[in-house]
Design goal:
- By secondary structure, the chain is of the alpha/beta class.
- Helix content is about 40%, strand content about 20%.
- A 5-stranded mixed β-sheet has the order 5-4-1-6-9, sandwiched between helices. It has a two-stranded antiparallel sheet with strand order 2-3.
- Strand 2 and strand 3 form a beta hairpin.
- The longest helix has 18 residues.
- It is globular, with a radius of gyration of 18 Å.
C-alpha cells in the first residue's frame, strides 16, 4: 500500500510541476514560508541539516495555494517565484519577515516593491509578533497560507528526506490545482498511460 501511494505521488508531482510553469495570475496574493520538517537533535534546538524550508503562495482570486521547497528564505530564492506567479499590478500580503520588509529604518519599506519597481505591486504586511490580522484593514493577513501550512506539516512531519517531502508537496499542489476527484483520477490514468512514470527517477 505504501508503494502504491508513493507511485501515485510521483505521477502527480511529474504532472503538477509542469502545469505550474503556465500559472500566472493577478488579484490578491498571500506569501509566506515555513519549516515543513525537521529532526530534533537535542534540547538546544533543531539540527540545521534536517531543516527543509517551503515557500507558499496563495491566490485569493483562484482560491489556490502553491508550495515549493526552497534551500533558503533569501530574496534571490523567493523573488523569482513571486515574479513568475504574480502578475504586475497585483496586491501581495505577507508578514514582516526581513526578506519582504526593511524594518531597519523609522519608516518601514517594502523590499518587494523596491526590487520590482516596474511591476506596480502593492505590498502590505502584518507584524506576526503582535497580531495575525491588521486591525486597520482585515484583508491584510496571511491566514489562508498559514492554514495550509498546518495541513502540510501534519503530513510531512515524519518524512525526513527532501525527496520524500517533494512528493508530498507535489500531491498537495496537485489537489490544489485539480479540485474534483474524478478529474484527478482521469489525469492520473492519462499520465500512467502516456508515460512510464512509476519506475522513472524524476528528481
Amino acid at each position: 500500500m505504501y508503494e502504491y501511494h508513493e507511485n501515485f505521488r510521483k505521477v502527480v508531482t511529474f504532472f503538477t510541476y509542469r502545469a505550474l510553469t503556465l500559472l500566472n495570475a493577478d488579484g490578491e496574493w498571500e506569501v509566506d514560508e515555513a519549516l515543513v520538517t525537521s529532526k530534533k537533535r537535542d534540547r538546544r534546538g533543531r539540527d540545521a541539516r534536517f531543516n527543509i524550508w517551503a515557500f507558499g503562495l496563495h491566490s485569493r482570486l483562484l482560491n489556490l495555494s502553491i508550495v515549493y521547497l526552497v534551500p533558503n528564505r533569501r530574496k534571490v530564492t523567493l523573488y523569482p517565484l513571486i515574479q513568475h506567479f504574480i502578475q504586475p499590478g497585483s496586491t501581495i500580503y505577507s508578514d514582516q519577515f526581513k526578506t519582504y520588509v526593511n524594518t531597519n529604518t523609522n519608516s518601514k519599506r517594502s523590499l518587494i516593491e523596491e526590487f520590482f519597481p516596474n511591476n506596480n505591486y502593492c505590498h502590505l504586511w502584518v507584524n506576526h509578533k503582535h497580531t495575525f490580522l491588521n486591525r486597520y484593514n482585515a484583508k491584510i493577513n496571511t491566514n489562508s497560507i498559514e492554514n495550509d501550512w498546518k495541513n502540510l506539516i501534519s503530513l510531512t512531519r515524519r518524512k525526513l528526506t527532501v525527496r520524500t517531502i517533494k512528493y508530498f508537496i507535489g500531491e498537495f499542489n496537485f489537489r490544489q490545482l485539480i479540485k474534483f476527484e474524478q478529474e484527478q483520477f482521469d489525469i492520473l490514468l492519462y499520465m500512467l498511460s502516456k508515460y512510464n512514470l512509476v519506475d522513472r527517477n524524476f528528481f
